[in-house]
From TrEMBL:
Taxonomic classification: Eukaryota, Metazoa, Ecdysozoa, Nematoda, Chromadorea
Keyword Aminoacyl-tRNA synthetase attached: no
Protein source organism: Pristionchus mayeri
Pfam families the UniProt entry points to: Peptidase_M49
Highest taxon of the lineage: Eukaryota
Active site, per annotation: E384
Protein name: Dipeptidyl peptidase 3
Length: 651
């Protein structure tokens, strides 16, 4: 958001100026109660955890559960504590941004109906679409860019700014003839430390490949050129089975309303060797498993590029929301022709504590408590490797040739010939735009649902017999239930996915990024349409007389009802994706993604029953005196612990 940078500086200067204990004493002198202080701590910790004042999982704004007047008095009391850092004037600049919520500022989106800093305030969706087409025609990629529109000398001028540390390097790019200009700038960004640390990390590289990879990262942050980051990604793919894993750059496009530009993020993690052995076995058998997917050999890559698939324990992840698994790099040309890596972030799952689960029976709750960790291990493996790692994009090459047999490949949806494909310069994310993230997560999630029922696959993970059946039951039950609770993220007023929330308390509850939530809701609707009593959702009253829901799944119908329904839907998802049929894909997704009247009632109950979200406390690493060894610094599992972790990370 526009105010996030100022809020970060405000909080960082505040918490760096004195101990949290002394700041608390000042707050109570300003009239804070225990509840006020907790609200402030939770809001600050949530801000740090989400990389801003909009939820990384949900894209909606959160504000302190504290009055602006009380907050302002608190800032005044801090004058002596931090007079040298101008906290008061800085607070006045961001106060409206902290507390204001209206229809526009409630969620991220194009500036006519939301908030974004991926584009300047004057940029419309039509402008964004035009610039996408313009960049595609010139084979320019916008991962690390932001879009601005200005009137210069009476002419509408589009400015594409890409992050670099070289400073401004401007290119005038011809656009719509004499009326408009497009300029491309490589602008100086706060990437100097990233560059210098990439160089420093190269000194500790275990192999020459890792050293070269770190060098390419540094070149990318210097030049701003995507080709340099692609080269770094190629080296990263070749870095097989490292003990320490790391990736950094402008990676995921979830938060850009156009689905074109990406968030800066990076992680460092240590390999979990035992779980990684299971994933390695899955990779070895992947080519035998892929033909079981419902689209046939013509819709699968010509050869499966066996990726490195590891389970990692995250040490540090700079991102707006730590995922449970990732499949990267996101560059279509590299993924399809050279390969990718699958990563499961094991300790982001194991860190989630047990708490009461809404809407299901005590028996089902116990099942999830007992088997969810193992079931999720299976789901994340199938989702990342055989979900994101499967399927072919039909492309026309720049020389006019095709990467598929245009004359003999049948359209698996119409039964006729394939009549659409990706033109040169077109990408999956660019063409499908904002829909691409949820659509792809839905496809990958569905792959996990259908393949987790295969007993030979479960045997790879060490599960057989009755235990394997429990894993299947748990995975389907938990996943379908998440489809229901995903309604929390639907904005009924805007009839879109995204929901505003005031932060009240910190309390662990597994949550999913908006794309995953929407995807799971769509799959729930697919299964509900299949009927036959497989999934039953009924309204009821809880023991206190409050509106409640009963969610039941008939385990005996997973194979007879659930799998066939999801398989048929999965085939359509792949068909539209492979053939670049945006219209067909959107119509399919919107059919099941729409929230009808009955679902809105369920949504009200889901929101009334929702639990507060969890926030991860991350450790820091610190070089000790010899400069060759590292100390791992951990923090308490409290809002204060999160704040201290961030303050010391950026000290």
């Amino acid at each position: 958001s526009p105010e996030s940078g100022g809020i970060f500086v405000l909080l960082h200067r505040l918490f760096s100026s004195d101990s949290i204990g002394e700041i608390k004493r000042k707050a109570f002198a300003a009239g804070f109660s225990d509840e006020d202080w907790l609200s402030f701590m939770v809001w600050a910790a949530s801000f740090y955890s989400n990389g801003g004042n909009y939820k990384g999982f949900g894209d909606s704004k959160f504000i302190p559960d504290l009055s602006p007047v009380r907050f302002s008095i608190f800032q005044e009391k801090l004058k002596r504590l931090a007079s040298s850092v101008h906290l008061i004037s800085l607070y006045k600049e961001v106060e409206d941004g902290i507390f204001c919520i209206d229809k526009r500022t409630a969620g991220l989106g194009f500036n006519d109906g939301g908030v974004t800093t991926y584009h300047s305030e004057s940029v419309t969706k039509n402008d964004s679409d035009f610039i996408y087409r313009y960049m595609k025609q010139r084979s320019l990629e916008g991962w690390n860019s932001r879009l601005f529109k200005e009137e210069i000398n009476g002419r509408t001028t589009y400015i594409i700014k890409s992050a670099s540390i070289n400073g401004v390097r401007a290119h005038l790019l011809k656009a719509r003839g004499i009326t408009d200009n497009v300029w491309q700038y490589f602008v100086e960004s706060p990437a100097k430390k990233t560059h210098s640390n990439a160089i420093k990390a190269g000194e500790f590289a275990a192999t020459s490949n890792e050293k070269a990879m770190m060098g390419k990262y540094a070149e990318h942050f210097t030049s701003g050129e995507i080709k340099d980051h692609k080269d770094a990604s190629r080296l990263w793919i070749r870095d097989v089975n490292p003990v320490v894993e790391s990736y950094i750059g402008f990676i995921e496009n979830y938060r850009d309303p156009a689905g074109f530009r990406s968030e800066f993020e990076g992680f460092v993690a240590a390999v979990n060797k035992e779980t990684s052995k299971k994933f390695a076995k899955l990779v070895e058998t992947a080519e035998e498993i892929l033909p079981r997917l419902p689209w046939g050999k013509w819709y699968e890559k010509d050869s499966f590029l066996k990726p490195d698939f590891t389970a990692l324990d995250v040490i540090a992840f700079g991102v707006s929301g730590i995922p449970c698994g990732i499949n990267i790099p996101n560059y279509d040309d590299i993924r399809q022709n050279e390969g990718f890596k699958n990563v499961s972030l094991s300790n982001s799952v194991s860190a989630m504590p047990k708490q009461k689960i809404n809407f299901i029976s005590e028996e089902d709750e116990k099942l999830i408590f007992d088997y969810n960790g193992k079931a999720f291990e299976v789901q994340i493996g199938l989702h990342e490797l055989l979900g994101h790692g499967s399927g072919k994009l039909f492309q026309k090459n720049s020389d006019g040739s095709f990467n598929f047999d245009k004359e003999n490949t049948m359209d698996i949806i119409t039964g006729g010939k394939v009549t659409s494909w990706y033109e040169p310069g077109e990408t999956w994310g660019g063409l499908f735009g904002q829909l691409s993230s949820a659509y792809e997560e839905c496809r990958a999630e569905a792959v996990g649902y259908v393949l987790c029922t295969e007993m030979d696959i479960l045997k790879i993970f060490g599960f057989e017999g009755e235990y394997a059946q429990k894993i299947v039951h748990t995975n389907w039950l938990g996943s379908m239930l998440k489809g229901l609770t995903a309604l929390e993220h639907h904005n009924a007023d805007k009839k879109k996915w995204g929901q505003v929330m005031t932060v009240h308390l910190i309390n662990p509850l597994p949550a999913s990024p908006l794309a995953h939530s929407w995807a799971r809701y769509v799959l729930l609707k697919v299964v509900l349409e299949a009927g036959q009593g497989f999934i039953t959702i009924e309204e009821r009253k809880d023991p206190s007389g409050v509106d409640d829901l009963s969610f039941r799944m008939d385990e005996s119908k997973i194979l007879s009802v659930g799998v066939p329904a999801v398989n048929e839907f999965l085939k359509k998802l792949q068909g539209f994706k492979s053939t670049a049929d945006v219209k067909g894909g959107r119509a399919l997704f919107d059919k099941y993604g729409a929230v009808d009247h009955a679902d809105l009632k369920w949504r009200e109950i889901v929101i009334a029953k929702r639990k507060p979200r969890f926030i991860f406390v991350q450790p820091n690493t610190k070089l000790i005196e010899d400069g060759r060894n590292v100390e791992l610094v951990t923090y308490p599992e409290t809002p204060e612990g999160i704040i201290q972790s961030i303050v010391e990370r950026f000290a």
